[in-house]
Amino acid sequence: MNASAELLKELRIDRSAPPRGPSPSRRWWWVVAGLALLLALAAGMWLGRKPALTVDTAPVLAMAQNGSGTASVLDASGYVVARRMATVSAKITGKVREVMIEEGMRVEEGQVMATLDPIDANAQRSLSAAQLSAARSQIGGLQAQLRQSEAEAMRLHSLVGQQLVSRSQYDQAVAARDSLRAQLATARHNAEVARDALAIADLGVDNNIVRAPFSGVVTAKAAQPGEIVSPLSAGGGFTRTGIGTIVDMDSLEVEVEVGEAFIGRVQPKMPVEIVLNAYPDWKIPGEVIAIIPTADRGKATVKVRVALKVKDPRVVPEMGVRVSFLEKAAPAGTAAPKGVRVPGAAIVQRDGKPTAFVLQADNTVRAQAVQTGATLGKDKQVLSGLGVGQTVVLDPPDALKDGDKVALADADK
């Protein structure tokens, strides 16, 4: 019994003894677990972060951006063309003797551009001149004979009345006189024919000289001395059909092809603004001349002729241009158009309202409801909600929301 009591005493907890601390290995396990938890939380936040969308932007502009106080209702592209342009050729087939033009040279109306070898034409003219001389000399001989015959007939007329000569002699004299008159008339007619033949021969000689049909600038030189030229394409590739090409620079205008869906916006006498591709900072005023009353079924376009109101040597045929068709200028004293203009691609529908996403300083966007006005070509008039100098997002994707951070496409280039 005493032995059992002693054993129970040994099993009693000694509460006066100090508590034992955790082992070093157990403390390191808790540290590792805490670090792992922190890493998992950080990874979850990084993976759950929404990536920034890359977008294009455009500035908000004032309504009058064309320098004329009016807004563009349609933009189109076209080319500079010349209403008066000619490839000058000879009227006859011949060998070129001399070419007197060079590219870029200005010629006046009637100025000699080239000459052909006139040997055949000169020979024909010499023959016609000789024939005319022979016809005229024949007229002189017949006139002398006719004078003698008329005098003879007059003498016999007085003698036959006195019965000093027979009637038959008088009749023969009258017949000879009338015959000479007929021969003289024929000779005179032959002389007129010979004179006309000489005039034709002179034209043949003149046809060997190629002259400018109007004043202009030479844009192409097509023939050289020694080559054969012809108004027809005779002789295949060995025959030239022209001497050179000249353009009347005062007749330059612009041809624009406008889509059928937008041709209703274009009216005759409508003001336009022309920008040459070669000089993008130079804005040339113009005016619609005419709308060609036919369409191109293949391209679904209608051709529009536009006049250039400024003549300048920098404008040359076949240059590419961009044309902005403008609203007609408002009368003096009329208030400036309200609102601002932005690209139409910046306006989208959100919750049934027209909305633009405005770029903030920290590259976040703010969804801004706007009130839109007229359509100005590819742009849109905004009456309220935006101000000049702000930047808006173009073609905002459906995933873009208010407050989202974006990346600028221009910054990546």
Automatic annotation (TrEMBL):
One of its GO terms (cellular component) is efflux pump complex. Residues 342-395 form the Multidrug resistance protein MdtA-like C-terminal permuted SH3 domain. Residues 254-326 form the CusB-like beta-barrel domain. The chain crosses the membrane at residues 28-47. It comes from the Bacteria. Signal peptide: none annotated. Keywords: Membrane, Transmembrane, Transmembrane helix, Transport. One of its GO terms (molecular function) is efflux transmembrane transporter activity. Pfam families: Beta-barrel_RND_2, BSH_RND, RND-MFP_C. Residues 84-230 form the Multidrug resistance protein MdtA-like barrel-sandwich hybrid domain. It is found in: Cell envelope. InterPro entries: Beta-barrel_RND_2 (IPR058792), MdtA-like_BSH (IPR058625), MdtA-like_C (IPR058627), RND_pump_MFP (IPR006143). Belongs to the membrane fusion protein (MFP) (TC 8.A.1) family. This is Acriflavin resistance protein. It comes from Stenotrophomonas pictorum JCM 9942.
